[in-house]
Amino acid sequence: MDVTMTVNGVESTRDVEARTLLVHHLRENLDLRAANVGCDTSSCGACTVLLDGEAVKSCTVLAAQAAGSEVTTVEGLAAADGTMHPVQAAFRAEHGLQCGFCTPGMVMATVSLLRDNPSPTERQVREGLEGNLCRCTGYHNIVRAALAAAETQKPVSA
Amino acid sequence: MSILGTRVVRTEDPKFLTTGGTYTDDLVEPALVGALHLTLVRSPAAHGRIVSVDVSDALAAPGVVAVVTAADLTELAPIPSGLPMFNPEMLRPWLASEVVRFVGEPIAAVLTEQRYQGEDAAELVAVDIESLPAVISLSDAASDTTVLFPAAGTNTVCTFGEPTPADFFDGCEVVVTQDTVNQRVAPVPLETRAASAVWGEDGRVTLWCSNQGAQQVKAQVSGWLGIDPETVHVKTPDVGGGFGAKIGADPEFALVAWLARHTGRAVRWAESRSENLTGLVHGRGQDQKVTIGGSRDGKVTAYALEILQDAGAYPRSGAVLPTLTMLMAPGVYAIDAVHASARSVVTNATSTAAYRGAGRPEATAAIERAMDVFAAEIGMDATEVRRINLLAPFDAPHANGTGATYDSGNYVGALDTLLAGADYAALRSEQAARRDREDVRQLGIGVSVYVEITGAAPSGTGEEAQVEVHADGTATVLTGTSPHGQGHGTAWAMLASDRLGIPMDKITVIHGDTDLVPSGGGTMASRSLQQGGAAVHQAAGELVELARKRAAEVLEANPDDIVVDAAFGGLKVAGTDVGVTYADLAAEDALLVRTTFTANAPTFPFGAHLAVVEVDTGTGKAVLQRVVTVDDAGRVLNPLLAEGQRHGGIAQGAAQALFEEVLYDADGNPLTSTLADYPIPSAAELPSFELLDMATETPMNPLGAKGIGESGTVGSTPAIQSAVIDAVSHLGVRHIDMPTTPEKVWLALQAAAGTAAREGAHA
Ligand code: FES
Ligand code: FES
């Protein structure tokens, strides 16, 4: 079946099997390989992308279900001139990644978290990222990165 | 000012953050376009005789190119066990044909044009298995009632050391024995195993795989396939975590290479998480009996450790890891008599092998638990018992009595720094207050002091490095170490930059390609910095010497007067403006050094951890509130990276203490085969960690560095387990096995209450 969606601002139509998962569609049909597959039970969050602005695990969504939607992956997060999004920059500054496998999903989950709650507490960050597993960092620096990004994103009050 | 010792953010990160890394399953190499997908049919039974394997329906399924079973692989000899002390009858076949020995053991290989077709076709392979009794518990395995390899005649893979002498504790005023379980845990690298292979027209195979050391894979795969090592080109692209489980080739890698040759097509394989949880190696898996004796005033004089090690179905490195546990048995303590022995047995579960710490966390867990039970027995504060028995600070090598020679250590210093930093006294008074008011939520405080051995594996030999400065003034570093999150790209560039005076952004670090880096030990056993990093330091130093000599000739000066001038980008005659750039020197003739650094001996990082937990005595649930650690890994190259390693290790140690355990039912069916069942912690279950610094340099390498990769798991696990037990110790609980789940804590509380009630009734 033909599926059309806009990914990182670019519209594309591909003929896919009805059962194709969004994550496989992104990775194999659109060659956007940042979203990773880390599990088979929607438990790890390595595949997290934004679907019409909401963080979803792209292994639990069929490509066909995303038809007509806007999808954002970590490849589409930086500004056109390459400037990293504040969340990406904070992950780097705070050493919020090691092997990097959870990172695209973790960054997208953090972007979504901060959109819903621009000034979270540490506890809120920890609970907000509960669906994204990282085996390397112990989360310490990921949490710091999320809090730091929240600070930079805050509108400067006059 | 030297860049060494400063918090340099990682040069690797922009790629991971903006486009994602390139892991094995991400590769879009031209050679892999149109590759076949491998799907393995794995055993659904833990132990059974294979009656038949019918592949006819699978062969007829859409997209299927081939279905391979053991009958097609007769040209391959069984996978060698690799270690002479193993029972030689316990060999693993490439694909099972007669007997299956664990759920997840590969039986058939299905090759399809597309990924999803493989899963469909694999379901059509009809395997008829007649079940045999499964052996899961270590005591069952040791009893030999059911023998997994009849030709071996026993389930014992190998034994180490003699039984504890009967009179070993004679003369001790107090002797306490505790059985402890260091449970089987799953490493769970977030990237599962993956491999791709293609044979070129030159008769060579390129094998990409997710692994901690390309060179070891090359040696093993070529050996297993019976081909010249030079025929095999291994590349490890970005690797999404390893934690020891990705050391050495897995049989699946060789199978991928063989299938690529067999079909004449490129083949790619990426396992599912369920396959990963059942088929990748697991870690730990020791039943331990600890016995500790001493005097009522707190002096420990004798300690014995008896280990029963779960090797899993086919012996791999897990079967020998007890030797490391034995080597480190006395830990940080001065104990007159220490005895350790071990026996490894096969069970119907996936093989055990290295997992972050590999044998050392088990040693620390044992001795630290022993110290706690000893303290409880004599009614003394557990930190006080430790202080009484700690080795005094030393900077000359110290033999530990079980075969290890510690390089340098200050264990008392670590404990003091920890207790002051965490405000131990305040924690104890908070605990006392809660006990007084019989709070439902009790506070537990656990402390461990540890020493571990790093850097020796796999062979104790050296590590090579090559540094080359190019005519454009940039430099390339080749290393045999193989990062999978450790940040060698940044760290090795720092080391080279420090000596060469070339800025880091002009230095490229290359690893994980056996054509470019033919030799290397890989990244494991926290060896990378102290071996591979030291080699880069040495190579860069030798390159500077070479450059000085050549500069002296060009500048017609005395080599002793030539100095590196970073701002100038080359070398100058000291105190003058006369110089020559690296670029000019390299344009003349290659500016390249290849060298080997050989560490004479391993190093022994150490530290002390304190954990605070809150235990709900109504439900048994323990919540980790604080972890404070002192981890002394000698001189630190980049504190940012070292802290990251500590954080990750602490989290994995906490996970073993509180949550994780691979479980099988009595028939050997895995109960933890998905991430929905196997509870690796998320951010919500862990606190932020409080790190205190200490740096006792080692004389074993010019950097003064010890390993840091595993300290977190070694130190945190016993501290956290101890904290949970401490929270309920005043209620009569002396021991709870890991993981200290709510159920286990609650049962221990019930048992203690029952004992108290009975004792009350008898009084
Ligand atoms: S791959 Fe989607 S949640 Fe794990
Ligand atoms: S950085 Fe490796 S899993 Fe998160």
From TrEMBL, chain A:
<keyword id="KW-0001">2Fe-2S</keyword>
<dbReference type="Pfam" id="PF01799">
    <property type="entry name" value="Fer2_2"/>
</dbReference>
<dbReference type="InterPro" id="IPR001041">
    <property type="entry name" value="2Fe-2S_ferredoxin-type"/>
</dbReference>
<keyword id="KW-0479">Metal-binding</keyword>
<protein>
    <submittedName>
        <fullName>(2Fe-2S)-binding protein</fullName>
    </submittedName>
</protein>
<dbReference type="InterPro" id="IPR036884">
    <property type="entry name" value="2Fe-2S-bd_dom_sf"/>
</dbReference>
<feature type="domain" description="2Fe-2S ferredoxin-type">
    <location>
        <begin position="1"/>
        <end position="77"/>
    </location>
</feature>
<dbReference type="InterPro" id="IPR036010">
    <property type="entry name" value="2Fe-2S_ferredoxin-like_sf"/>
</dbReference>
<dbReference type="InterPro" id="IPR012675">
    <property type="entry name" value="Beta-grasp_dom_sf"/>
</dbReference>
<dbReference type="InterPro" id="IPR051452">
    <property type="entry name" value="Diverse_Oxidoreductases"/>
</dbReference>
<keyword id="KW-0560">Oxidoreductase</keyword>
<dbReference type="Pfam" id="PF00111">
    <property type="entry name" value="Fer2"/>
</dbReference>
<dbReference type="InterPro" id="IPR002888">
    <property type="entry name" value="2Fe-2S-bd"/>
</dbReference>
<keyword id="KW-0408">Iron</keyword>
<keyword id="KW-0411">Iron-sulfur</keyword>
Automatic annotation (TrEMBL), chain B:
<dbReference type="InterPro" id="IPR037165">
    <property type="entry name" value="AldOxase/xan_DH_Mopterin-bd_sf"/>
</dbReference>
<keyword id="KW-0560">Oxidoreductase</keyword>
<dbReference type="Pfam" id="PF02738">
    <property type="entry name" value="MoCoBD_1"/>
</dbReference>
<dbReference type="InterPro" id="IPR008274">
    <property type="entry name" value="AldOxase/xan_DH_MoCoBD1"/>
</dbReference>
<keyword id="KW-0500">Molybdenum</keyword>
<dbReference type="Pfam" id="PF20256">
    <property type="entry name" value="MoCoBD_2"/>
</dbReference>
<dbReference type="InterPro" id="IPR036856">
    <property type="entry name" value="Ald_Oxase/Xan_DH_a/b_sf"/>
</dbReference>
<feature type="domain" description="Aldehyde oxidase/xanthine dehydrogenase a/b hammerhead">
    <location>
        <begin position="19"/>
        <end position="133"/>
    </location>
</feature>
<dbReference type="InterPro" id="IPR000674">
    <property type="entry name" value="Ald_Oxase/Xan_DH_a/b"/>
</dbReference>
<dbReference type="InterPro" id="IPR046867">
    <property type="entry name" value="AldOxase/xan_DH_MoCoBD2"/>
</dbReference>
<dbReference type="InterPro" id="IPR016208">
    <property type="entry name" value="Ald_Oxase/xanthine_DH-like"/>
</dbReference>
<protein>
    <submittedName>
        <fullName>Xanthine dehydrogenase family protein molybdopterin-binding subunit</fullName>
    </submittedName>
</protein>
<dbReference type="Pfam" id="PF01315">
    <property type="entry name" value="Ald_Xan_dh_C"/>
</dbReference>
